[in-house]
């Protein structure tokens, strides 16, 4: 590849990243439906056609923002915890990071917001949200299964049910963090998680660490 072509490619990628970063910030506070090409173009100092040159359509931009949100979320909540030992230690770390995520969303979680925005609106955005939520729920259930495999949770544990219940705790933590303060919400979430885990624990592990 010629040097001039490489430079143009790098510049194009950097411009796209800058647009996406701005769009992600807007989506955190205003939701994906709050994304408008005109104000976004003005915010990054470009024309509308310049923004369209990188994303093609508003829906393409929204999907790209969802991809970015999922990458950030997965890296912070899941991937960074994989260094922890398999089992309850890792599951607890994942849940704690999930609770903590509400401090890093600059107004709101794009992924949770998208669920509310598109749960009843058929189309590419809803399809993306459904698949992402399925993958995340499966990853959470897998973390639960590892705790079962370790003998820390009962062999009859319904991993999908426990993942569902943990998800409910994360929702209320994120809900309360914005309304009543993060520290209080996280503390209540931790206490609720430990009580929930004890209800599934094997007798030998029922005295797991308390929040």
Structure description:
The protein has helices at residues 3-30, 37-43, 48-55, 58-78, 88-100, 110-118, 124-149, 159-180, 182-200. It has one domain (3-205): Tetracycline Repressor, domain 2. The chain contains nine helices and no strands. Keywords: DNA-binding, Transcription, Transcription regulation.
Helices, by number, come to 9
> What's the architecture in CATH terms?
Orthogonal Bundle
Shape annotation: elongated
**What average pLDDT do the residues reach?**
90
End-to-end separation? 56 Å
Low-confidence spans: pLDDT under 50, at least 5 residues?
A: none
Global structural class:
mainly alpha
Q: What is the name of the CATH superfamily? A: Tetracycline Repressor, domain 2
Number of strands: 0
Measured on Cα atoms, how large is the radius of gyration? 20 Å
Topology order in helix (H) and strand (E) letters: HHHHHHHHH
Sheet having the most strands = none
Percent in helix: over 70%
Give the count of structural domains: 1
Strand composition percent: under 5%
Characteristics:
mainly alpha, Tetracycline Repressor, domain 2, 9 helices, 73% helix, 0% strand
Summarize the SSE layout with pairings.
Elements: H1 3-30, H2 37-43, H3 48-55, H4 58-78, H5 88-100, H6 110-118, H7 124-149, H8 159-180, H9 182-200
What is the gist of this entry?
It holds the Pfam family TetR_C_13. Keywords: DNA-binding, Transcription, Transcription regulation. The protein has one domain: Tetracycline Repressor, domain 2 (Orthogonal Bundle), CATH 1.10.357.10.
């Amino acid at each position: 590849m010629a040097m001039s072509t490489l430079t143009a490619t790098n510049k194009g990628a950097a411009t796209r990243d800058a647009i996406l970063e701005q769009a992600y910030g807007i989506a955190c506070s205003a939701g994906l439906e709050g994304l408008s090409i005109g104000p976004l173009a003005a915010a990054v100092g470009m024309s509308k056609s310049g923004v369209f040159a990188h994303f093609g359509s508003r829906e393409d931009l929204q999907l790209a923002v969802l991809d970015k949100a999922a990458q950030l979320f997965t890296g912070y909540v899941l991937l960074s915890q994989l260094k922890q030992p398999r089992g309850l230690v890792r599951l607890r770390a994942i849940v704690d990071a999930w609770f903590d995520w509400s401090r890093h969303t600059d107004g709101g979680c794009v992924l949770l917001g998208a669920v509310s925005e598109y749960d009843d609106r058929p189309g590419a955005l809803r399809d993306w949200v459904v698949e992402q939520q399925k993958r995340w729920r499966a990853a959470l259930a897998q973390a639960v299964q590892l705790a079962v495999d370790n003998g820390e949770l009962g062999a009859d544990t319904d991993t999908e049910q426990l993942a569902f219940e943990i998800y409910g705790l994360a929702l209320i933590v994120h809900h309360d963090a914005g309304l009543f303060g993060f520290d209080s919400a996280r503390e209540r979430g931790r206490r609720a998680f430990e009580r929930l885990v004890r209800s599934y624990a094997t007798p030998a592990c029922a005295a797991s660490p308390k929040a």
